[in-house]
Amino acid sequence: MAKRKASGAYLTEGEKIAGTVFFVIYLLVLPFVTRPALDLLGRLLGTTIGESLGNTIYYYVIFAVTLIIFHRFIGHTTTLFLENAVGSLKVLAVGFIAFYGLNELTYRLTRLVVGNHTNLNDMTISAQIDAAPRTTLLIVVILAPFVEEVLFRGLVFGGLRGKSRLAAYALSCALFALLHVWQYALVNQDITYLVLMIQYLVPGLVLAWCFDRSGTLWTSILLHAGVNALSYWAILA
């Protein structure tokens, strides 16, 4: 299974600049302005935008923005996947095995460190599934994996890989983990929530490896979508 050059190396300067601006807004600004913006939109339209509809609007918008900014890169990484579909699917299979093997070990380690500290991100998703199972399925299996992989693996990992593979892995994994916990640590004014970042380091590492090994972002997108689909099914079961 030959390693291929990660297609993040083919990001244009325009994609890097526009993508970085969007990434900062996505990571640090949108979590706090989205709900007020939706409430304002609802008042202007004379209606109430509920949590389910709000989440759907949010993810459709960031999905559309991601497509607009990175359309050239997405086209290129799609071509690479189609050219080496068998090799990419082999990497995907190894990724699934590594994900669940290493993730279980990391989960047990995290429990030793934080005890029964609740993962509020998991609770939030579970509540969204209970309230709106169909729209949440669309978000967690299609929209969110696509956006997160383009940003964290395509932009961050791909942008850094040519300079330092170690830095690419470290920063993309750390930012991916931080995304899932920092809001809860800030809102609850409890920095111990940041310890839960450990639970997301292995997923970030495996997803980055899939991209790095196959050279196409679609391996990490498919792995991310598959893992989320299995988690969704487990919550419903």
Strand content: under 5%
Largest sheet: none
Q: Give the tally of β-strands.
A: 0
Distance between the termini: 37 Å
Low-confidence stretches: none
Walkthrough of the structure:
The protein is mostly helical and 237 residues long. It contains nine helices and no strands. α1 packs antiparallel against α2 (51-83). The chain is globular and about 50 Å long. The model has no long low-confidence stretch (mean pLDDT 87).
Q: Key terms for this structure?
A:
single chain; mainly alpha; 9 helices
Quick recap:
By secondary structure, the protein is an all-alpha fold.
Topology readout:
Layout lengths: L12 H33 L5 H33 L1 H30 L5 H12 L1 H29 L3 H15 L2 H6 L10 H17 L2 H20 L1
Helix pairs in contact: 1-2, 1-5, 2-5, 3-8, 3-9, 4-5, 5-6, 5-8, 5-9, 6-8, 8-9
